[in-house]
Write a structure and sequence with these properties.
two-stranded parallel sheet; about 0% helix; two-stranded parallel ribbon; mainly beta; about 90 residues
């Protein structure tokens, strides 16, 4: 490690949850997802937490890169678990 910067690997867990980090914005990028299968999705987990196949992170950057899905299968996915889009 040169110049007093951080090392390549963390030595302890972060004090902040990753899902609340505001620095993961991506400019002019895109994500391609191939042959994903979503099977038996329900609107709640076994412990009662909400779950969705597609959603945005409400704590993330305002600039969300395009996501392209190819050959995606939805098998027995409840309509209330399909997508969550936060209010504007």
């Amino acid at each position: 490690m040169f110049g007093g910067g951080m090392g390549n690997h963390p030595l302890m867990p972060s004090g902040k949850p990753y899902y609340k980090t505001m620095s993961y914005g991506s400019w002019s990028g895109s994500t391609e997802l191939y042959r994903n299968k979503f099977i038996n999705w329900q609107p709640k987990t076994e412990t009662g937490a909400r779950q969705f196949v597609l959603c945005l992170n409400p704590f993330g950057s305002d600039n969300i890169q395009p996501h392209k899905f190819y050959d995606t299968t939805f098998d027995n996915v409840h309509e209330d678990a399909m997508a969550w889009i936060m209010p504007p």
